[in-house]
Structures are given as structure tokens and as C-alpha cells.
Specification:
The structure holds 2 protein chains of 2 kinds.
Chain A (H helix, E strand, L loop, with lengths): L2 E5 L3 E2 L5 E8 L7 E7 L5 E8 L4 E3 L7 E6 L4 E6 L8 E11 L4 E7 L3 E5 L2
Parallel strand pairs in A: 2-11
Antiparallel strand pairs in A: 1-3, 3-8, 4-5, 4-9, 5-6, 7-8, 9-10, 9-11
Chain B lengths: L3 E4 L2 E3 L6 E7 L7 E6 L6 E5 L3 E2 L7 E6 L2 E6 L9 E6 L5 E2 L3 E4 L1
Parallel strand pairs in B: 2-11
Antiparallel strand pairs in B: 1-3, 3-8, 4-5, 4-9, 5-6, 7-8, 9-10, 9-11
Classes of the chains: A mainly beta, B mainly beta.
């Protein structure tokens, strides 16, 4: 069974960088797609981006200038870096797997971590 | 950017109710819409994918329908354990969530 677990600082100062790690067990990140999603206070959800099985990336255009998603296949981990954060980046950050079904020709985010709460404050 | 407008934002419900919520896409997204359930303190859980397909292990009281720009999610016989926030998600062009529908007693 695939399991994902986010880790990283819970408090980041404005203008600094937010860095989170997603550790995956039970499944190799060299298959399928691995992404980050965040939930703001008040229920709004935002897809941030993903890294693919090959290491290619895709980002939400609204974040493209600030975001980087990388991976370490030897540790079966992938990472989120969000630069120049403001208080508006305060959210719960989730990592998730986008599983591709060749039968359906469709991707689904079928496995999620428990989420990491990050507050941006001085 | 594709905007998913979800309605209503909240509903007061009773056990046994039939519950219906909607998502309207700002442009044609085909059948590329999923529905998620998120209970308090938990991560989102996939219920419906590709507009109308129930995910593995999901009870048949949960159904989805629609295509193009208009999508509907229904709980046919509301249970207390279904209290949660529900989200639609389009994956036709990048990924965009609806604003969520909170079900309350």
C-alpha cells in the first residue's frame, strides 16, 4: 500500500523560502506523477504542480515564478520549494500521487499524505 | 485558467436525505472531473473520477454525472459519516478545484 508523509518547518518568515519533503513508501516515485496541493484557511484548494516518473515537471501558472518541485529517487522522496512567501501562502500542504490508468486513459489523485500545516509569519 | 464554480457552498442536511451539489466549469472540460470528500482533520479522499465512475470501495450511494461544463454529485441516502466538505476537480487543463460544499447537520 502506498503511503505519503509530508515533513518540514511549520513556520516560515515572509520573503523566505518554504521547503517541504514528501516521503513515499510502498511505491516507487519512478512511476506515475507526484504532486503538491494546498488548502488555504476557509477551504479553498489549489493544485501547485507535479514531478513525473521521468523527472519532468508541470506547475500551476499562478505559481510558476516561485515554485520548484524536485525529487530524490534514491530516497523515494520528492520536494517542494516555494520562494518569496507571504502570509497568503499560509496553508496546509498535501503531497499526492497522480495514478495513471491506461485502461481509462486517465489520471487520478488517489493517494494523499496527511498534510503539513505551514504558517507564514514574522 | 479554468474556473470551477461549485454550489452550494454549504448545506444543512439530515440523515437519510438525498443531497445534490453542482460544479460548473468556465469552459468545456469533457468528462475530466473528479469528486473528493474531505473530513475534518483528514486528507481528501477520491470518490468519483471521470465524472461518473465510482472509485474502488466507494459506496454506491455516491454518484456523479455530467459532461462539458455542468457536473452533479449526489449522495442518495445521507449517512452521518458523510459529513464532510466535498470538492470537484477538473483535470482537462492543469487541475482546478471547486470551492467546496460543506455538509452540516
Amino acid at each position: 500500500e502506498v503511503q505519503l508523509q509530508e515533513s518540514g518547518p511549520g513556520l516560515v518568515k515572509p520573503s523566505q523560502s518554504l521547503s517541504l519533503t514528501c516521503s513515499v513508501t510502498g511505491y516507487s516515485i519512478t512511476s506515475n506523477y507526484w504532486g503538491w496541493i494546498r488548502k488555504f484557511p476557509g477551504n479553498k484548494m489549489e493544485w501547485m504542480g507535479f514531478v513525473s516518473y521521468s523527472g519532468s515537471t508541470s506547475y500551476n501558472p499562478s505559481l510558476k515564478s516561485r515554485i520548484s518541485i524536485t525529487r530524490d529517487t534514491s530516497k523515494n522522496q520528492f520536494f517542494l520549494q516555494l520562494n518569496s512567501v507571504t502570509t497568503e501562502d499560509t496553508a496546509t500542504y498535501y503531497c499526492a500521487r497522480s495514478y495513471y490508468s491506461s485502461y481509462e486513459d486517465y489520471y487520478v489523485m488517489d493517494a494523499w499524505g496527511q498534510g503539513a500545516s505551514v504558517t507564514v509569519s514574522s | 485558467d479554468i474556473v470551477m464554480t461549485q454550489s452550494p457552498t454549504s448545506m444543512s442536511i439530515s440523515v437519510g436525505d438525498r443531497v445534490t451539489m453542482n460544479c460548473k466549469a468556465s469552459q468545456n472540460v469533457g468528462s475530466n472531473v473528479d469528486w473528493y470528500q474531505q473530513k475534518t482533520g483528514q486528507s481528501p479522499k477520491l470518490l468519483i473520477y471521470k465524472a461518473s465512475n465510482r472509485y474502488t470501495g466507494v459506496p454506491d450511494r455516491f454518484t456523479g454525472s455530467g459532461s462539458g461544463t455542468d457536473f452533479t454529485f449526489t449522495i442518495s441516502n445521507m449517512q452521518a459519516e458523510d459529513l464532510a466538505v466535498y470538492y470537484c476537480l477538473q483535470s482537462n487543463s492543469y487541475w482546478t478545484f471547486g470551492g467546496g460544499t460543506k455538509l452540516e447537520l
